[in-house]
Amino acid sequence: MRGNLAQSKADSIIIDVNGIGYEVGVHGRTLSLLPGTGSPLTLFTFLQVLDNDLKLFGFLNTEELELFKTLITISGLGARTALNILSILKPEEFYQTVISADEKRLLTIPGIGKKTAQRLVFELKDKVGKGQDMVITAVEDGAMIEELLEALEALGYQRSEVFPLIMNMKSQGELAERLEDSIKRVLRHKALQMKK
Question: How far, in Å, CA of 156 to CA of 161, rounded?
Fold first, then answer.
């Protein structure tokens, strides 16, 4: 959607498209990044069709739009909570949080209780996909992590199987500087997991 910013509210904006004002729901971080009233604005939008209502939601980039669409597919998680998540965490931060099963961080988001945090981790942990690539790009030593993943794939492991473990080890400072040593450490951790 392309138009001019006509008005900003607490959790939505009015965007003027050829003389017609559309109300679009946005999250807090988007509000803080908006240009001044009257300025041109482009938003990636999602139209939610409810029984008796149509709601538009807007995002400044496609990564946020894709994450929003993923979040609202989770049972019990509505558009408002999805916007709260995006207001607090950028997409790569959210994927990092889910991949490392950091429920405490999820609990700091308004509208997310313990059960919802557990559901988010459980339902999304294996759907790493694009989110995994975003996390690799966003973290330090991204190239080394990519090499480590490729080496473990060559040994027969699935990316989705070892990626959460690698990110967890990285956050704990348990990866080595040399690739060979990191491979050994990951394999040791996998062996310990198998014994449990």
Answer: 11
33 vs 29: CA distance, rounded Å: 7
**CA geometry: angle 122, 126, 127, nearest 5 deg:** 105
> What type of residue sits at position 186?
V
Which residue ranges in the chain fall short of pLDDT 70? Answer: 126-142, 160, 196
Burial of 134 from C-beta contacts in 10 A (0-12 / 13-18 / 19+)? buried
Handedness of CA 160, 161, 164, 165 (dihedral sign): negative
* β-pairing verdict for 12-17 and 54-59: unpaired
Contact indicator for 16, 24 with CB cutoff of 8 Å = no
Distance between CA atoms of 67 and 97, rounded to whole angstroms? 13
Cβ contact 133:143 at 8 Å: no
pLDDT tens per residue, range 50-60: 888 899 999 99
